[in-house]
């Protein structure tokens, strides 16, 4: 089962001063199941500064693995209470980043659904912000 889907990604970042910034991407993507895990693939946009990058999400009941490939590269695993460090690589250089999730909610079926991630973002070893990432997947037939 590989299906064309509409993927909505809304990211909200709150810094230490309480200032909030949100960005939302709506794009077409692919959705499929392999070895009882859900996969979501979509292309990033220039709005997020990642044009030329493909994002894949491997979705398990309590864990989500984000993998970006292309002009920007990043791999992080979101699992409640577990610090996961990796590198964010861009054409301008790379930096060590880590995520510490406080919430990983997965509500996906073959029909689509949603993922809700809440996490602390660290660059180097310093906290940068509290983040929320909401991802929804809907079949394109719903819009035909």
Please tell me about this protein's structure.
This protein is mostly beta strands. The protein has a single domain, classed as Calycin beta-barrel core domain (Lipocalin, Beta Barrel). It has no helices and ten strands. A ten-stranded antiparallel sheet has the order 6-5-4-3-2-1-10-9-8-7, with no helix packed on it. A hairpin with a 3-residue loop joins strand 5 and strand 6. The mean pLDDT is 91.
* Helix coverage percent: under 10%
Rg from C-alpha positions?
15 Å
Number of strands: 10
CATH class: Mainly Beta
Number of helices: 0
Short description:
This protein is mainly beta and 144 residues long.
Q: Keyphrases for this structure?
A:
mainly beta; Lipocalin; 144 residues; globular; ten-stranded antiparallel sheet; single chain; 0% helix
What topology emerges from the helices and strands here?
Blueprint: E1 2-14, E2 20-34, E3 37-43, E4 53-59, E5 63-70, E6 74-79, E7 84-90, E8 93-109, E9 112-123, E10 126-139
Antiparallel strand pairs: 1-2, 1-10, 2-3, 3-4, 4-5, 5-6, 7-8, 8-9, 9-10
